[in-house]
Amino acid sequence: MLELRPNCECCDADLPPDSADARICTFECTFCADCTEAILDGICPNCGGELVVRPRRPAAALAKYPASTKRVLKAEGCRRSG
Questions:
Q1: Per-residue burial over 52-78, b = 16 or more CB atoms within 10 Å of its CB, e = otherwise
Q2: 31 touches 50 (CB < 8 A)
Q3: What is the pLDDT at residue 65?
Q4: N- to C-terminal Cα distance for the chain?
Q5: Structural domains in the chain, sorted by start
Q6: Which of 62, 61, 39, 41 is nearest to 51 (CA)?
Q7: How many other C-beta atoms lie within 10 A of the C-beta of residue 16?
Q8: 17 alpha-carbon distance from chain centroid
Q9: How many whole angstroms separate alpha carbon 80 and alpha carbon 61?
Q10: Strand 52-53 and strand 30-32: pairing?
Q11: Which residues, listed in sequence order, are joined to residue 32 by a DSSP beta bridge?
Q12: Residue 9 · residue 29 · CB < 8 Å
């Protein structure tokens, strides 16, 4: 089950579980749409994988299986890829 991490690893923007702006890779690294497009060119800086829109969990399931509250932030920030 996806963790639904609460923030962008680059800029620390809040990404609530229902956010359409959240992007993830197959390892669930999480970034906002702005950082994904403007800085990362759609590529995860951690694993090199593709960043895609994170699925949204239905409200009923979210009540039973809540999103993660653990924030992950790259201390060095993110740099433009390539």
A1: eebebbeeeeeeeeebeeeebebeeeb
A2: no
A3: 96
A4: 31
A5: 1-66 (3.30.40)
A6: 41
A7: 12
A8: 10
A9: 36
A10: unpaired
A11: 22
A12: yes
Which three-class secondary structure string do you get for 15-38? CCCCCCCEEECCCCCEEEHHHHHH
Please name the helix (run of DSSP H) or strand (run of DSSP E) that holds residue 51, with its range, or none. none
Using alpha carbons, select from 46, 47, 48, 60 the residue that is nearest to residue 17: 60
3-state secondary structure of 56: coil
CA dist 11 and 2 (Å) reads 21
How far, in Å, CA of 52 to CA of 24, rounded?
5
Q: Which amino acid is at 16?
A: P
Query: From first to last of its 82 residues, what are the pLDDT tens digits of the chain?
Result: 999 999 999 999 999 999 999 999 999 999 999 999 999 999 999 999 999 999 999 999 999 999 999 999 998 888 765 5
40 vs 25: CA distance, rounded Å:
12
Residues in the chain: 82
